[in-house]
Design goal:
Elements: H1 6-17, E1 23-26, H2 33-42, E2 47-52, H3 55-65, E3 72-76, E4 90-96, H4 112-125, E5 126-136, H5 143-155, E6 162-167, E7 178-184
Parallel strand pairs: 1-2, 1-4, 2-3, 4-5
Antiparallel strand pairs: 5-7, 6-7
């Protein structure tokens, strides 16, 4: 695996946690790459919930899924409403923050308040040992605010309940993406924040 491939690292982590037959969440369907990957991991008995607020993204995802479309539920809604669609347990969840790649409107972006709320809710829904991966792209308008909100939230999680790791390249110019991974250590219905 190449160190610079943030998404490849996120997928390696997901391969370690999601088992056939489990439920997985693609919190930002985009063009469907992660939805397809999660559908393959979950297998024919599992299911994937793929969220996006843009119909174009869900249409692209449906095409990418091909004959695995029956394994995924494509949801035109914000990822912070995930508990309206699943009670748990969830094996794992993936986020790619920012805007829809190859889309015309780059003003439609993920937002700090919904992203943090979605991670918070998903931590409560995860199985023990389940993972959430968040690929953070902060080089666009609004990306810095979302990055800061996510990292502030992550630092406030109690270490007895959740391990949080940040993977990044430190010798690249510009704003290379980085990965934040959350691993649930014990059963709880809602994570506890430190004061």
């Amino acid at each position: 695996m190449e160190l610079g491939r943030t998404l490849a690292h996120a997928r390696k982590l997901m391969e370690r946690t999601i088992r056939p037959g489990e439920t997985a969440v693609d919190a930002t369907a985009g063009n469907g790459h992660d939805t397809l990957f999660l559908a393959e991991l979950a297998g024919p008995e599992g299911r994937v919930l793929a969220f996006d607020i843009q119909q174009d993204a869900l249409d692209s995802t449906r095409v990418r899924l091909g004959n695995l479309a029956d394994r995924a539920e494509l949801i035109l809604d914000s990822h912070d409403r995930v508990s309206d669609y699943v009670e748990g347990p969830v094996g794992g969840a993936m986020f790619n923050l920012g805007f829809l790649p190859n889309a015309g409107d780059r003003t439609v972006i993920t937002r700090p308040e919904t992203t943090v709320r979605a991670v918070h809710v998903l931590l409560g829904l995860l199985k023990k040992g389940g993972l959430i991966t968040v690929c953070v792209y902060d080089g666009h308008e609004g990306g810095d605010r979302e990055r800061d909100a996510l990292l502030s939230y992550a630092r406030r999680l109690r270490e007895a309940e959740v391990d949080v790791a940040r993977y990044e390249l430190i010798n690249q110019k510009g704003h290379p993406p980085f990965l934040v991974a959350f691993e649930k250590k014990k059963e709880f219905t809602e994570p506890t924040l430190m004061d």
